[in-house]
Amino acid sequence: MMNRAMTVIKWLLTILFLLLVGELLLQLLRAGEATIGIITALVSLFATLVSFLPRAAPDGDHRLIRLYQTLLPGILIVGLLLLRGAIFDLAAAQQIERILTADTASETIRAAENAEAFGADVSMELETWLTAYLDKPDAEVSLNRSVTLLETYAAVASPEDIAAFSTRLANQIREDIATGIVSEEEVTLFNKLDPEASNTLADSLNDSGQVALAANDLVGARVQLETAALIDQVDPTLRDAEHQAATLHNLGQLYEVDLSLENNSQLAIDTYRRIIAIHPNDVEAYYAMAALSLRQENYVDAVNIAEQGRTFLPDACEGVPTAFESDIDALLCYFLLTTEAGGRYNQGDSLRLVQTLAARATDIAAAFDHFEPNYYTAEAYYYLALSSEALPDKDTLCAIIFYHDESDDMQQEWADYARVQLGDYPCFRD
């Protein structure tokens, strides 16, 4: 009876041992970790335990042998459980390494799943790696690779961990804004991890950048607006075209006045081109580009851009001046016609064509009270005077004096030109 009970116990323990071995090897095989070394370790454990079994009992007593034989599977189970923890730690570490080095996204996800099966805290490992990467981006790790790791993190981390990491990323970006250096890497990862928060951050940076620009804090405005524009560039689907264009308009205006930047005018032109790429009928961007091209003495571009911009306005700015339903449309027509007149005059086009454009611009200005007090219309009158085949009209010359900006050196030169032409002729403003 005793022998039968011991036999049953032995078989139950043996079956349990085999199940544990099978479960261990199955996980190792599934993860690709059933290496010769691990299998050898299991075999060595079995052989070592067996070697301790006595070959014969003292004094012919075979009960000790039967006891050892019965308890052998139990001993193996204890040994296997001890070894299992070490094996799983090793396998988990190898899977974590595969997560960081896998060639494809699918391989990365599979390695993450395997690592979790071996008890690894994958989300913590990835968060640690991503934090270190953002502190000092590894030149050998592509941005696309880091995005894949971030997506893997988002797939395995809890919503609470993701929210906390997103907050840390946003805070890091704001800290880097304070130092004037924001990397594409951190913006890209923040966009991918939390698009809604990234959208909100872009709007906030645009608003605060606009305030800084108005306060003439060009350094602060630039880093905030450039970061907002970078968020849009990394993922153009986050914000609508109007919000993106608003940020780029602010950034373009900043580049225009920030003389500390090399090629600041060209930076502004390139920024306005980005606006047109996302918002093709943005007439203000056309005017800004045309005016900058004229200032850079790139007359061909100034004329072509101004002409193209006019096509988006009523009657291409060739209709009756009083027919405009919007003051903004009238103002933009005035700007574009004047810029085109300046470009054509400077590149030697027909004076009659220049005069036609300038006269149309001055008619619009007169119809809208010269857009005072916010704008100055001396430029159109200046080109109208220059394009006169005879002596410039006295009223035209007086208008240059009346409507020029005394704080602008170039416009002051126009006024001086008018005074010379007028001589002792008195100008009286209605």
The main β sheet shows up as: none
Distance between the termini: 129 Å
Task: Please compute the radius of gyration using only Cα atoms.
Answer: 39 Å
* Total helical segments: 19
Helix and strand run:
HHHHHHHHHHHHHHHHHHH
The residue ranges in which pLDDT falls below 50 over 5 or more consecutive positions are none
**Share of helical residues:** over 70%
Mean pLDDT: 82
Note the overall shape: elongated
The total count of strands amounts to: 0
Query: Which structural category do the helix and sheet elements fall into?
Result: mainly alpha
Q: What percent strand?
A: under 5%
Structure, described:
By secondary structure, this protein is mainly α. Among the domains are: 1-54 and 64-118; 121-193; 195-238 and 245-271. Helix content is 74%, strand content 0%. It has 19 helices and no strands. The protein has helices spanning 2-30, 36-51, 63-101, 105-117, 122-135, 143-156, 159-179, 184-193, 195-214, 218-234, 241-257, 264-278, 283-295, 299-310, 327-346, 351-367, 378-386, 394-402, 409-422. It starts with a helix and ends in an 8-residue tail after the last helix. The mean pLDDT is 82.
Topology, please?
Layout (H helix, E strand, L loop, with lengths): L1 H29 L5 H16 L11 H39 L3 H13 L4 H14 L7 H14 L2 H21 L4 H10 L1 H20 L3 H17 L6 H17 L6 H15 L4 H13 L3 H12 L16 H20 L4 H17 L10 H9 L7 H9 L6 H14 L8
Helix pairs in contact: 1-3, 2-3, 3-4, 4-6, 5-6, 6-8, 7-8, 8-9, 8-10, 9-10, 9-11, 10-11, 11-12, 12-13, 13-14, 13-15, 14-15, 15-16, 15-17, 16-17, 17-18, 18-19
